[in-house]
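FIELD: query
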Amino acid sequence: MKERFTYYSPIGPLCIETEEDLICSLLFCDKELMTENFNPKLQKLITEQLDDYFGGYLFEFDLPLKPSGTEFQKKVWSELQNIPYAHLTSYGELAMLLGDKNLVRAVGGANSKNPIAIIIPCHRVVGANKKLVGYAGGLWRKKWLLQHELTNKSDLSSLW
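FIELD: result
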């Protein structure tokens, strides 16, 4: 049974859906979802990590994920999770990591279908010329997320 709740971020509400205590969806939404019977421990964990991310203190999520998609989409989403905080990569670079530079359009299609925004950081993918292109949550959110990460990147040096 799927459970849902709404998290209020600085860039708008995020609708989070879980199944069997695994996050299967985190998307930008326009209206609040009713929270019913949501696992309070999981909701606390998700909320704490999102709060820390948006507060500039969390650079890598550690949450249970279960994105639903094709095998190819899952490979792309897995590669997205390897992009470090505040770093950019291009669709072409992702295609090369997957073993075929001709997969650029397929990578872009999989990226656009990412069901778990922010946590699976598709916002870190840009066009070949480093231009901001495509983001299901809107380019203004992509720009905000990238600026947020770059602003807080300096805090990484204090970890060593």
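FIELD: remark
Helices lie at 40-55, 71-80, 91-97, 104-112, 139-152.
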